[in-house]
Each structure stands twice: as C-alpha cells, then as structure tokens.
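Quick one:
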Amino acid sequence: MKPSAYNFFFRVDGEAILAYNSLTTALVELTQEEFGHVADFLDDPDESFFEAHGLTQLEEDLNEMGMIIPDGLDELEQIRAIRLALKEQDRRLALTIVPTLDCNFRCSYCFSTSHKTRMSPEVQQALLRFVEERLQDATSLSVSWFGGEPTLCMDIIEGLSEGLSALCDKYDVPTQPGSIITNGYLLDERMAKRLKEAGISRAQITLDGDRETHDARRPLRGGRGTFDRIVDNVTRTCEILDIQIRINIDRSNLDAALGALEALEARGLQGNVRTYFGHVKPFTEACADVAAACLSNKEFSEHNLALTKEALTRGLASFAYPRPQLNGVCAADKPLSTVVVPDGLLFKCWAEASVGERWSVGTIWDDKRTAEQEENLRAFLQRDPMARQECQDCRLLPICMGGCPHIRIRGDGGLDCSTWRYNLLDTLAVRYKLGRQIETREAPAEGTASD
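Output:
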C-alpha cells in the first residue's frame, strides 16, 4: 500500500485534525492517535504497517476513502481513464438557448455585445429540427436560457419550451428542470408563473452590491437604477422559482458587497434564496476595459471565502464543496453541450456567444463546418487538462482539471488555476465547523427522554 498523491492533512484551530482527498473528496476527522499512526505510515509506507500495529480498521477506513491505495495504482492514469470513459458515456443533451442578445441593461463590464436581433421563427423551427435529430440518441435534455436578457422574449421561450417538451415526449427522453439567467428586472409574479409553466424552475439573478453601487454598475439603458425593483421581484417570486443570487465582485465594489446581503436579509429572504459571489473577468474584447478592476484568482479566493462566511451567518449562502471535475469543469466541457444564438450559430461557451462566427463551432442548419469551426470544436472536445506538467504534479488536479476551458483555450497560455488552490483548506475548515454546529443543534439536550 502507498499514500494517495491527493491527500491533505491539516489542523483546524490547532485542535481537530482533518484528512481530505481531492480525488474521492472524502473528508474525515482523525484523532491525535490515528494521525500519529498515519504520519508514521507516511514516513515509511510499508504494506504490512497497519497489520503489524493492529490497525486493520484504520487501514480499511483509509482505503475506502482513497487515502491509501495499492502500490501498482497510477492515479494520474486512473484519472485519465475515468475522464475518457465519462465523456464517451455522456449522452446528455444540454442546450443553452440565447433568444436575443438585446438587453434592457447597460452593465459596465458585460462581455456581451448587444444586438437587437431576436431569434426568428425560421431559426426556432431549425433549432427544433436540430434537437430532434440529436434526441434520438440522447439520455436526457436540459435547457438553460441566457442572453442578452432572455425575458425580453417570453413568447420565444414559451414556444420553444412547448416544442422541445413535445419532442421529448415523442422520443421518451426525460427532461431536467429548466433554468434561466436573468437580470431580474422583468421577473414579476406573472412572469415567474409563466416560466414555471414552461418547465423553468430555477433562476439566477445578479446584484452588484448595495443600491448605490449596483445602480451605477447595472442601470437600465436610459441610466435609471434597477436595484429596488430587482429585490422587490425576488421577494415576490422566491416561492415560485428556486432563486440564486450572484453577487459580482471586483476591486471597485468590494466594500459594497455586504450591502447586497443586508438588503436581502432586510426582506426576510433567509432560507428562501441562496447567494454566491461571482468573479468578474474580462472574457472578451467587449469587457476588456474592466480588466484592471478584476481581482486575480488568488485575491478573489480570499474575498470570496470571507464574504461566504458572512453570508452563512446571515442564512443566505450556498456552500460550494470541492468535488471532482473529471466529467467536465462546466457545460463547455461536455460533449453534447451547445450554446445556440439568435442567428443559429453554435458555440461551446456562453462567454463566446456574442463574438460572431469566428469562435462558433457550427450552425443548427446542417452538420457542415468551416475549417475554423472544426478547429474551434476540436479545441474544446480534445482539451487535455493534464497536458501541462504543473497540472500533472498538482494535488488539486481532480477538483480543478485545468480551470476554465474558455480561458485556457482563448487566453494567453498561462494557468487559470481554480480558487481551491488558494482557499481549499480554509473552506474545508468552514465545512467541518458547519457540520459540528449541526451535530450540536441536533444532539438531545441533557436530561431529555433520549438520554
């Protein structure tokens, strides 16, 4: 037996000793005595160590959690094999549909280049034909709506949702709950009910801090503020849709990020919405002028953890646990994941949806591709997150897998390491403390009938 290359052993507040493995993502607390035995084994990994010391149960536990492995196991090759098998088996058809690139907002950092074009009836029919051809070999269909601002096109959303639902019934393909990314300005109760009837149960809405900061960064086209109406809409619709609030942060609004939490808390939304903090990045030339204000991955990881702790204390956070990404970091990594824009062009990443044909990977009209589209598609489908030696040697590889595919492919060639590189152990410590708090709350009080 030998130790896994993906083990982490660390203390929390100088007391508890935790063991975590980034391949299995097992997290366990060790006693001081157990850790002493583990440390001795790490110093001299002998296969007979545990049996010789009467520690067969500890050996079984560590083996089950992937923290000790057979001598002949090459974990890097194991990751490669699992990743390849998962991709070959993945027949889930995932669509991100962009009915328009138009938007009623003029956000200062948006990567999208706004166009007035709506998806025409001809494109909608071609999209349904495109989906029908692929549903016959699919195991499920999931649909996300994006823009621009998709709620400007409710007629398109409803019409396509009805058509897609009919196709899934025809070919007996299950559908996953739909989702929409919206600025939330038009999301009143009536629209939320329409979305729910169209099979959309989840919505992501963005805030950029307190009212003053948000209104300066995310105004309507005419310059009027949007904060109050968005928060009003969230309050009225959070029992209709599962709403997640993304709070964008960069250097210019860090001091205002808590203001968004305070506003949600003031509306009594604890337990009704979940928040997370979004990393503003210059994805395309359209938002390149905000690059100087963007936090580095290391800086973002530090601020993200601090703000998430604050959100947890207010009952407003969604907690991200580090899990394996062997099946893909995001939708762009999935073999049958596609972004469809209003003119029928196809893309692998939503961040590329407004740049025109040069980053496209095909069209809905037929299976023909230009040489450039073939290369664009190949760049995503054949992306090897383990091509770089730094990644092969990294203990975080299973939960990072090379970071954002778009940035790795379109960027300057540098690494785009996951924020886990900078806050993994601190995040796991928070997770451990949350678990202990839950155990304490659930433990029967002294002197009760449970004793």
